[in-house]
Amino acid sequence: MSEPTTSEIPGAAERRLPGPVRHKGPGPSESGWLDPRGRGHGGRAMALHRLTGLVIVVYLYLHLGVLSMLLIGHSAWSGFLSLVTAKSFLALEVVLIAAVLFHGLNGIRVALVGSGIAVPRERALFWAGAAIAIAAVIFAALHILGALS
């Protein structure tokens, strides 16, 4: 077998043009960024990784807004504390913990697979991370919702 010439390599003509190499052709649309349909387990995990990342960013901005209530005064802070100690609000904290755990553990998986260390074990890493996250979320839910208090 002979080496392919530069004219046979896809994209070779675009690389000779001046300026940066750009993606040629249609790419995924923004609406498909979070769409898990038609993807394998890695694609679904990445879609969920993106979604949990957005949830965490929104939470951080809301958290900063809540902390600014300390500047308003003690009565505003006390009123807010009575709201966040309700069981329905505590359930949202369990969802947040689940999002943070999945995002962190899946990020470790993505880093290991992306660096080539764990490519053959990608599926096993996903399920191991999912098992760890589920166990930790169950423990946190029992603790936060008062079953372990």
Descriptive overview:
It contains six helices and no strands. With 149 residues, the chain is mainly alpha-helical. The protein has a single domain, classed as 3 helical TM bundles of succinate and fumarate reductases, CATH 1.20.1300. Helix 2 packs across helix 5 and helix 5 runs antiparallel to helix 6. The N and C termini lie far apart (70 Å).
What share of the residues does DSSP label as strand, in percent? Answer: under 5%
CATH topology, by name, is: 3 helical TM bundles of succinate and fumarate reductases
Number of domains: 1
What is the arithmetic mean of pLDDT? 81
The topology string of helices and strands comes to: HHHHHH
CATH architecture: Up-down Bundle
Overall shape? extended
Gyration radius (Cα, Å) is 23 Å
Q: How would you summarize this macromolecular structure in one to three sentences?
A:
With 149 residues, this protein is mainly α.
Chain-wise SSE layout:
Blueprint: H1 12-16, H2 41-67, H3 69-72, H4 74-84, H5 87-114, H6 122-144
Can you give keywords for this protein?
extended, mainly alpha, 3 helical TM bundles of succinate and fumarate reductases, 149 residues, 6 helices, 66% helix
